[in-house]
Amino acid sequence: MGLAAVAGGAVAGGAAVAGQAAVAQGQPSPSSSPPTAATPSLPGGATVDQLRVPFPQDEGLLTPYTFELGYSLVTLLYDTLMWRDASGQPQPWLAESVERSANRRRVTVRLARDARWHDGRPVTAEDVAFTFDYVATRYHPRFTGQADAIQRVEVVDKHTVVFHLTHPAPGFFDQPLADVPILPAHLWRDLAPGRRAPEGPPVGSGPYELAGDTEDGYRFVADPDYFRGAPAVATLRVPIVSEAEATLRALERGRADLLSLPLSEGMRRRLSGLGIGFLEGTSYRGIELRFNTRRAPFDDPDVRAAVAAAVDLQRVARAVGGDAVPATRGYLHPQSPWAATEVVHRADVDAARRGLAGADVGSLEVLAPENDPVKVTVARQVVSALRRAGVDAQLETVGPEAHADALGVDGSRPTFRLAVASGFPLASHDPDFLAQALDADGKPALNRTGYHSGAFASAMRRVSRTSDEAA
User: Fold this and answer.
1) Hey, what CATH class is 3-20+286-465 in?
2) 34-85 pLDDT, tens per residue?
3) Domain definitions of the chain by residue range
4) For residues 331 and 158, which has the higher predicted lDDT (pLDDT)?
5) How would DSSP label each residue in 351-364?
6) Worst-scoring range by mean pLDDT, 56-65, 89-98, 185-194, 404-413?
7) Separation CA 74–CA 77 (nearest Å)
8) E strand or H helix at 245
9) How far apart are CA 283 and CA 274, in angstroms?
10) Of all helices (H) and strands (E), which one includes residue 272?
11) CATH dotted code for 59-214
12) Are 204 and 77 in contact (CB under 8 A)?
């Protein structure tokens, strides 16, 4: 799990805490068997009949243009050209090979020759070229900005494309190649401007097909002929369970087999005595303290800096528990290859008190989603920090939909002033993504705080155009 508290979204003067992601794994359901080498394979090569993995909300139709939080579910159905390995490095996936030219402005991708769409048609270079043209011209808050470096996509033959780039884009293998799902051109090409996806069930090239979609959840079935080999789990059931407490109870009572969620220290202690195992790995997802720079008092950078100074990230990390650590070196995760080496955030309550004493901040509410105990814990710590700095502060918890509305997740104007929310993990994979999150080029995309800095924009342009990844 992770935490990021960033002053107005700015890296300078900001602070962060980051850590590990935990997967809690219970006993397999009665109809399934543990995925060990000794387990006889099921039809298609699968080793587990069924896994039940709860998800917090109904995502509707699972396509690249209709999901909200369910990117992980979409990638069961759609493939990307590359995919991150266990160490977070992009490796060829739908691609058979990916090569850069010496000047780093040309990327050649050769596709796996036996990849097919779920309707039986082959995946071709035309699909790849179509996808990136579509993403560039049909706005998507996550994907469109990733195509900014692409000048054009050349189809060389049925299985080969060449990306011609306007600048070297050091993180191009990660974003967009390991993040943008490839679309079947024959289904998306003639989509009317007002439609977000083709009619009917999703058709991708991924390891699973969607066999059931109801208000209670999703059912995915493995493609036994998947070009990378049959998936190890034959059926994935994804029930919709909106509350974290209900999700934990489902695992405790044997109604769920696997959970992937941030675990507070208390949640971990609660589960560890039930024979439930934990798998952990570095997660670049963080939790931010966001300032709405469109609203007073946070339109004043000195006020934002004072609030940031009030927050002791060591204290917050201890309260969150587990393996959370303070990412005091800026917005990026400390284990990101792009992370800074110098400390940029130090708590200083006296400086915070002086900075806030002359500002008309009034009473402040720290907004957090009531269904996320880790975010609520973080918000409580922020409230305590503000009080230590002499500010009248209160915790305000709301439902997840009200929280999303206040943040302007749907593109509407945000109404919050101070809120705890999820950070953008993609920035730690490729710092180019910071330009979308922090409006480096006047393209607001994901910039829900209203932050803008000419100096930051200039720095991001230099980063995105360097040909030296070590620079």
Assistant:
1) alpha beta
2) 233 333 344 455 588 999 999 988 898 999 999 988 999 999 999 999 999 8
3) 3-20+286-465, 59-214
4) 158
5) HHHHHHHTS---SE
6) 404-413
7) 5
8) helix 244-252
9) 25
10) helix 265-272
11) 3.40.190.10
12) yes
